[in-house]
Design a protein that fits this description.
The protein is mainly beta. It is built from one helix and seven strands, in the order αβββββββ. Helices cover about 15% and strands about 40% of the residues. Strands 1-2-7-6 form a four-stranded antiparallel β-sheet, with no helix packed on it. Strands 3-4-5 form a three-stranded antiparallel β-sheet, with no helix packed on it. This is Hsp20/alpha crystallin family protein. Belongs to the small heat shock protein (HSP20) family.
Length: about 130
Amino acid sequence: MKLIKDKKFLQNVAQYIDLTNTIGGGVSQPIIKMDKREEGAVLRVMLPGVEPEQWQVVVDRNTVTVMALHQNENNPAMQAPLFLHNFVLPPLVDYSQLSAEFKGKELRIMVPFLPKGPRVLDIDYRY
């Protein structure tokens, strides 16, 4: 295997590959972290160069889909995904209380847990 010894060529190619990987339709490498707390968890997603308006979070049953979309300036109806990831949540999550915020340079999705312990149900009496 021959090594390319021209450092200037390698620097130019590396910049081009990185640019085309993130802007030209490639995939950016996100950083995903899950912070578990007693009352719930926080899902943190960081993706360099993505503006807050480009993020979208969709909840469907027990699945949270997080995506970042690139919109064509000439044709706003055309969108290309920069990032798309599905997270399957466990049954102990209070799905009605899920929320998302963009803080600093990261998207945060708050995933609250259901209260622990037994729950007493109200009985509907019908005669």
